[in-house]
Amino acid sequence: MQANANWKGGRYTSPRGYVYVRAPGHPRAAIYRGYVKRATLVLEESLGRYLIPPELAHHRNGIKDDDSPANLLLCANQGEHRRLSAQSPLSPSKGTT
Predict the structure, then answer these.
(1) Assuming Cys at both sites, which of 7, 10, 57, 79 could form a disulfide with 39, CB separation 3.0 to 4.6 Å?
(2) 3-state secondary structure of 35
(3) Does the model's pTM come out above 0.90?
């Protein structure tokens, strides 16, 4: 696979701005063809455990490729994540992008 001209080192950015990393042994890897959101991996490392569905990572500053541990917050579910995203400084509902 690495000899392929399209190989990007096991990392890509989705059209929505999230960074994905190749992690074939990860429990969520099957969902994304062997890739996992980098934010998920960073948050799991700081917690010392895998996220348990429906847990997910939230970017505090709204910048989807800023996966620094200080910028990530554990959300218990998608509803909590939506609520926090609506309050984000970059939320479209706040008049910014």
Answers:
(1) 57
(2) strand
(3) no
Q: What angle do CA 86, 45, 29 make, to 5 degrees?
A: 80
The C-alpha atoms of residue 13 and residue 1 are separated, in whole angstroms, by 19
Q: Which residue has the tokens 């895998």?
A: 50
CA angle 57, 74, 85 (to 5 degrees): 60
Q: Where are the domains of the chain?
A: 11-92
Instruction: Report the C-alpha gap between 82 and 91 in whole angstroms.
Output: 10
Give the separation between CA 42 and CA 87, rounded to whole angstroms.
23
Rg (CA), the chain: 14
Tracing tokens 């541990």 back to the chain, one arrives at 69
Question: Which pLDDT tens digit goes with each residue over 41-50?
Answer: 999 999 999 9
Give all strands of the β-sheet with 35-37 in edge-to-edge order.
11-13, 19-22, 35-37
